[in-house]
Amino acid sequence: MAESGHAPTATEYIVHHLTHRSTGKQTSIIDFSVVNLDTVFFSILILCGVLLVLWLAARKVTSGVPGRFQAAVESLVELVEEQSKSIVHGDRSFIAPLGLTVFLWVVMMNAIDLIPVELLPWIADKVGIHNLRPLPTADLNGTLGMSLSVLLLMIFYGVKIKGAGGWVHELFTAPFGAHPLLWPFNFLLNLIEYLAKAVSLGMRLFGNMYAGELLFFLIALLGGTWGASKGWPSALAWSLVLLAYLLGVLWLWASGRGKPALVLLVVGALVFWIAQPSFFLAIGHAIAGTAWLLFHILIVLLQAFIFMMLTLVYIGQAHEGH
Known about the structure:
Elements: H1 10-17, H2 37-59, H3 68-87, H4 95-111, H5 119-126, H6 140-173, H7 183-230, H8 232-254, H9 258-275, H10 279-318
């Protein structure tokens, strides 16, 4: 972008931020020769961090009064254990820890979207990495890779619980019956069911996080457009003036002087409108960014919880027969 000699358009800005650091250029819709290195790096980095946190929690556990860190981890463990107990009937010695790891892993990967959109790409650019997309769950390759792992676990537990013969028998005889003429229809339906579970699991997470990431880019363009039009030194100065003005309004309101605060808010808005009409782009940027950030925290947690619950549900279904 910098090499073009001009400020990027909105389309160039978004395309730049949606471009992965990869091993090559994708030549078709499905191209297994291309690996998105940023997705792999951040996925593994965050997984190692999650495992380290869980290891530290297990290492420092005490039977006495727990500290805040231990209490928080114990609450998460109890939450996942209760959910797995109600869904999976049988040995949960591996499944409950799996659910906890999946939940924390997806939460932390999703939380990268809460970091300012320019920060990590800017740091990467300073060390010579010119394309970086740090959000792994906004990459369809990453989410489908995770859902493929869940699919393999479904098949593994199906074979483990029912035996290889029982699993294959169910594959060809359920749900329509054991008559040989129905075997192709049963097999086709079960194959579609397995694929639909895996694809929908990955697509759901990808779609929500991709949309959230794209909206952050659009909101960033509001402030970026105003800053570029005014020049960043001027934009910074006016931003500091606005910050001082808002702090003054909040101080008056907190002091119980509601009417002076309201008057100052209205008069200040008129002054800003006359002095810098385009400054309301920056105000819209701040309001929209803050509102979407707060709402997106819910999406980050909710999508991780849904992914964990569906993982447990699918593994639980593998324990049961049709």
